[in-house]
Amino acid sequence: MIELHKNEDILAVRRKTWFVFAATWAAALLLLLGPLFGAAILAAPKLEILRGALITPYVFLSGFFEWTVWLWLFAGMINYYYDVFIITNERIVHIEQKGMFNRTVAELNLSRLQDVTIEQRGLVETLLHFGTIRAQTAGELNVFTFEQVDRPEVVKEIIARAQRIALKGNRPWP
Amino acid sequence: MFFLAAAFLLLGLLFFGAVSAAIVYHIKKYAVQGDRSRQLLVLFLVGTIVWAILILASFLATPWSSLPELLQQ
């Protein structure tokens, strides 16, 4: 859980688009079904390799294979799911998960935000409604970038609304 | 054959258990307010328990001592 300041509310939590993780999901699903297909082939009437007492060692080895795929899927899921862009009524927090043990947390104060740009490049990004958001603070060279975010135009609008109200000094939502 | 399989099982369970614990730790630690980490954790644990039971049950059901003869047939 991220620690919120007093009177700070989370307005939106955004992640990368589902499309980024779709290849991993599809590969994991195929690999999880692999031992079943393998068993069907090995137990086919013409081969009949998998029969009798050989079934349990096959299940034993398949179990380890399935567990490996399961762990690989969830390790990838952590990389995807915990790469988040959190917009509160005070700041933007960008948490970037790189693998299992590398994590970067960057913060940008809304009152210092100067410019927000969205960028959608190519057919895939346009059709699937994802793109890149770049936010820049006044007097700093660093640009805050969040790539492959779902519906960047909506996120930009949320940031703009939050910033307007943060600059007024009011809480944006009752 | 039995000792080889038992060693494989023990090392496998230790290693996979450690990786599973690391994943559980990540899911619990890095949850964000209002996200679906709890459901993710339940799904992961259910899958992990299913694979572990499958492995243990198949290990116990396998006639390891007579397996080399069965493989040669």
From TrEMBL, chain A:
It holds the Pfam family bPH_2. InterPro entries: YdbS-like_PH. The chain crosses the membrane at residues 20-44, 64-82. This is YdbS-like PH domain-containing protein. Residues 84-154 form the YdbS-like PH domain. Keywords: Membrane, Transmembrane, Transmembrane helix. PANTHER family: BLL0215 PROTEIN.
UniProtKB/TrEMBL annotation, chain B:
Keywords: Membrane, Transmembrane, Transmembrane helix. The chain crosses the membrane at residues 40-61. This is Uncharacterized protein. It comes from Candidatus Terrybacteria bacterium RIFCSPHIGHO2_01_FULL_48_17.
